Amino acid sequence: MFARSFDWVEHSFALNRLEALDGVSSEENNTNTPEKPNPPIRTRFQRDILGRLLGKYSIKQQPGQRPLIQRDRYQYDAAGQLITARNAHARVVLHHDRMGNLVEEQLYQRGRGLSQLRHTYDELGNRLRTHLPDGRQLDTLRYGSGHVFAMELDGETLCDIERDSLHREISRSQGALRSRYQWNAMGRLLSSRTEQQQPLVGEPTSQGQQIARSYQYDAAGQLMAINDNSKGLTRYGYDELGRLLSAAHPFAVNEVFAFDPAHNLISQQQAEHNQQKRKTDNRWSEEECQAYVKANAHRPDFDPWLTPEQVQNDPLFWGEARPNRLTTWQDHRYQYDDFGNCIEKISGSAGNQTKKNLEWDTEHRLSRVWIERKKNGNTTREGWGYDYDPFDRRLAKYPLDATENKQKSRQSRPWKSPQTTYYGWDGHQLISEQQQNKHQLYIYEPDSFVPLALVTSEIDAKNQPANALSEALKDYPPEWQQLQHQHQHPEHWAQVLEQQKKYRQKAGVTELKAKAKTPENQQIHYYHVDHLGTPQLFLLFLIHFNERD
């Protein structure tokens, strides 16, 4: 099978006898010339007799360089549930209970080792408790069919929630503050008000002891105005298609938006120019219309009801000369590869300029960034690399030596740098970031991506469950130490897991004995969000100094 996307990228699909996808080839057809070769990305899928995906192999040829190769492999249990997924960067092991709930997720990551998430559920499948990789415990307290009334971190209350008879949230406590909410009959937020309910611990990040916002909607449910006690009244305007045209702010520059026929955002000056041009264009005579139809009637895509200007503005007729990608915006300039990935971004003027070159893997994930900054005659360069798990979640960001070539940087194992930032995930929620002993924990409203709190702390990496076993095995024979996860490539982990388990049992060391110590200097930052769940500001932060012996 064959398909072509709106930006002229061609996709070829191959199906097996069971009509399951067996392979994909993606390439751009409009610029394949000897001067600019565009090798395709070829992806092959391996399946079992039940049609389940066992492997995915992608390759992209690079002129003058080694080809990019990506290989993902998957395993399933007898019930057909995914239990293992691995690639060159990580291995993810999933454990489920008899009801199919995910009860444990183990991540073996290069440069970091093992991290685990464990979950507990009620009879209805609602999550009640999560044991985090750093040893902390997050509890979600529910009633009835799963409505949340409180959340706790290590037994400390993060928030208490009150609900009305329709189980809509009408009140929430966040540290020293309490927020109250009102809703209309359609379930839209009408107002939110936050007030101090007890003496503050620490200092508020904003002045004043009250935050109030109210919302107004039209009959179609479009937001017409937001009245904020600190920002004033903001009004919004829309066109007949529901696109935002204006935002009038009392204490800031008013915003005006315009769109081209493909709904791309353009400048107001360009929109006014296009409108004026349409007004000044002369109408065709009947003879001109007949001549135009006669000259184009043989074309299969010809529409006699459209003028040449309308055809020019219609994205369906742009073809290979108009890929519909943003190339210039203010002082930013962009270049793209044949698959639509931005490969170069230049910002600023010649004397004060930042240039970024971006590299993408076979799955179109950002793999490397090379940054060059020029300011006052000085030039600085830096590079960053990124790791991903088989579910396309970013696991690590590490520095690269911008003075070395790409092959040398790859051989030096840059992901072991102390400047590496590690990311933790719960499903598709980013729940943690860690660089050395600096740790950030993100907590969300249950079953959503709306942020609730940010917990920052200092953690001794050696005392975390992921590394405690490695510390315990330091005094044992060298052959035991060789089996530690952070020193093994992901491709070798499957071979050593069983042997390492035997050594741990012989040494009397298990994961259950590797307890994490309480984080130091823990700070809890609470988010205040708008009707869409977008953070507006930090309400408050609490500081806890944990004493140590």
3D architecture notes:
This is Sugar-binding protein. By secondary structure, this protein is mainly beta. The strands form three sheets. It has a 22-stranded antiparallel beta sheet. Strands 25-26-27-28-29-30-31-32-33-34-35-36-37 form a 13-stranded antiparallel beta sheet, with no helix packed on it. A two-stranded antiparallel sheet has the order 23-24. The chain starts with a strand and ends in a 5-residue tail after the last strand.
Provide a short characterization of the protein structure:
This is Sugar-binding protein. The protein has 549 residues and is mainly beta. It is built from 7 helices and 37 strands.
Outline the secondary-structure elements.
Layout lengths: L1 E3 L4 E7 L5 E8 L12 E7 L5 E8 L7 E9 L5 E5 L3 E7 L5 E8 L3 E9 L5 E5 L5 E7 L3 E7 L2 E8 L5 E6 L2 E7 L5 E8 L13 E8 L5 E6 L3 E7 L5 E5 L6 E2 L1 E2 L5 E2 L1 H13 L5 H11 L11 H6 L14 E2 L2 E5 L5 E7 L3 E9 L5 E10 L2 E11 L5 E7 L5 H6 L9 E6 L2 E7 L2 E7 L6 E8 L6 H8 L5 H4 L8 H18 L12 E10 L5 E10 L5
Antiparallel strand pairs: 1-2, 2-3, 3-4, 4-5, 5-6, 6-7, 7-8, 8-9, 9-10, 10-11, 11-12, 12-13, 13-14, 14-15, 15-16, 16-17, 17-18, 18-19, 19-20, 20-21, 21-22, 23-24, 25-26, 26-27, 27-28, 28-29, 29-30, 30-31, 31-32, 32-33, 33-34, 34-35, 35-36, 36-37
